[in-house]
């Protein structure tokens, strides 16, 4: 399958899945043998560039991809403006086109698992959040992959068969029209204040944020596990639970909520740059 070379080429920038076809395609005939052939081709490509330094490896992969006229299929949860720039720059620099499927991290995860269950692999490359990537790896959906650039990444960026491409910074954010200067929460304990009852929004799927904050409270702040659990219960009692950072960021900007407990810093910054009354 021609997408094999392109998948290997894109993977140092994103993440690698086994093999695939365009996301709108139906299940091909003879899926088992075709999948096996695709995997063999991927292994052959990786073997061909084994031992090359990063620049030589990249140039050889580009040559192979262009020779095959490849299009790489990317499933991602990156925000559309960022993903469009990534795709545009990649295509300009390599001559390899990207066929995008963009959705929430949960939707990307579910689609991959459903396709795997059906014996169909629609993506060459996946770029999404860490918890979803780990689930996909645990389910055997990702193909082993190494790259010279992994050695230059931050510690713990490589996990199993996937590699981190970005770190999201979770922040508490507020509507500057509704939260006066000096009243902004300064600690997580402040989110439990009854004054925020009904004014706080929380993302129902932010398990990694919950885990990190819980560990911070226990390990760094000296809370007992029971105290940390009790604090989260108080915070939750003030909150409305929503799904999707983009959605509750828009609601925050519109004044539907005064605070959000865990948004991405870059999203709040971008909204503020566009004139929304938000800050973190």
What report would you give on this structure?
The chain is elongated and about 65 Å long. The model is unreliable at 1-9 and 11-40 (pLDDT under 50). 45% of the residues lie in helices and 15% in strands. The chain is built from ten helices and ten strands. The strands form three sheets. The chain has a five-stranded mixed beta sheet. The chain has two domains: 3-163, 3-Layer(aba) Sandwich (D-Maltodextrin-Binding Protein, domain 2); 170-279, D-Maltodextrin-Binding Protein, domain 2, CATH 3.40.190. The protein is α/β, with parallel strands linked by helices and 280 residues long.
Quick take:
By secondary structure, this protein is an alpha/beta fold. It folds into 2 domains: 3-163, D-Maltodextrin-Binding Protein, domain 2; 170-279, Periplasmic binding protein-like II (D-Maltodextrin-Binding Protein, domain 2). It has helices at 3-10, 31-49, 54-68, 80-94, 105-117, 130-138, 207-220, 225-238, 245-253, 265-273, and strands at 71-76, 97-102, 125-127, 158-159, 162-163, 170-175, 200-203, 239-242, 259-264, 278-279.
- Global structural class: alpha/beta
Task: Say what the CATH topology of the largest domain is.
Answer: D-Maltodextrin-Binding Protein, domain 2
* Whole-number tally of structural domains: 2
| Number of helical regions | 10
Number of strands: 10
Q: What is the CATH class of the largest domain?
A: Alpha Beta
Strand content: 5-15%
Distance between the termini: 47 Å
Shape: elongated
Give a short account of the largest sheet.
Answer: 5 strands, mixed
Report the mean per-residue pLDDT as an integer: 85
H/E element order:
HHHEHEHEHEEEEHHEHEHE
Strand order of the largest sheet: 8-7-9-6-10
CATH architecture descriptor of the largest domain: 3-Layer(aba) Sandwich
Rg computed from alpha carbons, rounded to a whole number of angstroms: 22 Å
């Amino acid at each position: 399958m021609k997408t094999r070379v392109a998948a290997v080429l894109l993977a140092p920038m994103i993440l690698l899945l086994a093999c695939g076809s365009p996301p709108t395609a139906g299940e091909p005939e003879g899926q088992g043998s075709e999948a096996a052939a695709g995997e063999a081709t991927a292994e052959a490509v990786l073997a061909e560039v084994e031992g090359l330094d990063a620049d030589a490896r990249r140039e050889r992969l580009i040559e192979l991809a262009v020779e095959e006229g490849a299009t790489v299929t990317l499933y991602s949860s990156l925000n559309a403006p960022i993903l469009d720039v990534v795709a545009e720059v990649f295509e300009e620099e390599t001559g390899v086109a990207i066929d995008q499927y963009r959705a929430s991290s949960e939707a990307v995860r579910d689609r991959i698992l459903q396709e795997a269950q059906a014996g169909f692999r629609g993506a060459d490359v996946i770029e999404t959040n860490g918890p979803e990537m780990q689930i996909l790896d645990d389910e055997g959906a990702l193909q082993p992959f190494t790259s010279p650039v992994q050695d230059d990444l931050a510690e713990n960026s490589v996990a199993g068969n996937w590699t981190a491409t970005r770190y999201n910074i979770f922040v508490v954010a507020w509507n500057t029209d509704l939260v006066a200067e000096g009243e902004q929460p300064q600690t997580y304990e402040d989110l439990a204040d009854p004054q925020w009852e009904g004014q706080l929004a929380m993302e129902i799927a932010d398990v990694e944020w919950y885990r990190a904050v819980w560990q911070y409270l226990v390990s760094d702040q000296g809370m007992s596990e029971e105290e940390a659990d009790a604090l989260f219960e108080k915070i939750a009692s003030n909150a409305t639970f929503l799904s999707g950072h983009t959605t509750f960021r828009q609601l925050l900007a519109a004044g539907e909520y005064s605070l959000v407990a865990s948004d991405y810093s870059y999203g709040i910054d971008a909204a503020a740059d566009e004139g929304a009354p938000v800050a973190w």
